[in-house]
From TrEMBL:
Documented EC number(s): 3.6.1.-
Coiled-coil regions listed in the entry: none
Lineage of the species this protein comes from: Bacteria, Pseudomonadati, Bacteroidota, Bacteroidia, Marinilabiliales
InterPro entries found in the cross-reference section: G_CP_dom, NA-bd_OB-fold, P-loop_NTPase, Ribosome_biogen_GTPase_RsgA, RsgA_GTPase_dom, RsgA_N
Protein name, per record: Small ribosomal subunit biogenesis GTPase RsgA
Length: 308
């Protein structure tokens, strides 16, 4: 029996790479069940698997424990989900404060989903070559806000190749997810980091995403300086994620930390007396935009579902 990393999945065939660099095309044997989840695909890119080579086939016979996985509902009608990627070491959210604007609401939704999945996030502020002084002021405000909470931030220009060495250093040897609005410079960044890496990265359309045949396809590309970038159409973000209203503050680390000082242990930080979170917002210790994102997510919560 050998073990290796799944680097591509079509839903029926899995490309597995061993530590020695051998590539094996495997099928699945038998049933792999995930506790409490009905999946269309039990194995995804990022999985470490055990496989056997027989005369006529190579067969995956076991999956190693995952440190995390990203899951998405196949469609609204179906109760089935698909695992999109496993063992993601870190997600990079590419942000532009202008051209186009990335809102704090969007950033915070992404961050909460990543917290829920237990995937560390780094923020990459791109296009610094293009910013006017007021854009730079905004950038430094945002950077302060997010670094204070513990999210590492980078300022780069993908186009002018400014500060890309530190990005490469951070990607190195890891399984990476790159995300961000269309137009923020993902393709430009990837091309600058590794020319010739022809990623698909395009957002899959809703109807396409729900098509039967494309749903389980996922792939990750190896960087020549080691490490992987997950390139699965349609996972620019994390999809829909189930969160209980009561849980929401767990995914805002700074709110969660201070909430221990609230008078009521089940404080929602909206209207209760003795709320330490509201006090911290008033004192500027918690950023107003973060608190507003929190409120927005709590208050619009109809069915505990968030599209990230
Ligand atoms: P994607 O949709 O996220 O893949 O974005 P692209 O990589 O296609 O970039 C969108 C546009 O932004 C293109 O016109 C790029 O040339 C431009 N762009 C990307 N990075 C930078 C940058 O660092 N500075 C400037 N000025 N433009 C950039
Ligand atoms: Zn409170």
């Amino acid at each position: 029996m050998k073990e290796g990393l799944v680097i591509k999945s079509t839903g029926s065939w899995y490309t597995v790479k061993t530590a020695e660099g051998e590539i094996h095309n495997c099928r699945i044997k038998g049933k792999f069940r995930m506790e409490g989840i009905r999946t269309t695909n039990p194995i995804a890119v990022g999985d470490m698997v055990d496989f056997e080579s027989n005369k006529d086939a190579e067969v995956i016979v076991g999956i190693h424990d995952r440190k995390n996985y990203i899951i998405r509902k196949s469609s609204n009608l179906s109760k089935r989900s698909q695992i999109i990627a496993s063992n993601v070491d870190q997600a990079f959210l590419i942000v532009t404060v202008n051209y186009p604007l990335t809102t704090t609401t969007f950033i915070d939704r992404f961050l909460t989903a990543a917290e829920a999945y237990r995937i560390p996030v780094r923020l990459i502020f791109n296009k610094i070559d293009r910013y006017r002084p007021n854009d730079m002021v905004r950038l430094s405000e945002l950077k302060n806000t997010y670094e204070k909470i513990g999210y590492k931030c980078f300022e780069i220009s993908a186009k002018k190749e400014i500060h890309l060495d530190v990005i490469k250093e951070t990607l190195k040897g890891k399984i990476n997810l790159l995300s961000g609005h269309s137009g923020v410079g993902k393709s430009t960044l990837i091309n600058a980091i590794q020319p010739g890496l022809d990623l698909k990265t395009g957002e899959i359309s809703e109807s396409h995403a729900q098509g039967k045949h494309t749903t389980t396809f996922s792939e990750m590309f190896e960087l020549d300086f080691s490490g992987y970038i997950i390139d699965t159409p349609g996972i620019r973000g994390f999809g829909t994620i189930d969160m209980e209203k009561e849980e929401m503050s767990h995914f805002f680390p700074e709110i969660f930390k201070i909430s221990k000082n609230c008078q009521f242990h089940n404080c929602s930080h909206i209207h209760e007396p003795g709320c330490a979170v509201k006090a911290a917002v008033e004192e500027g210790e918690i950023s107003l935009s973060r608190y507003e994102s929190y409120l927005g997510m709590i208050l619009e919560d109809e069915d505990n579902k968030y599209r990230i």
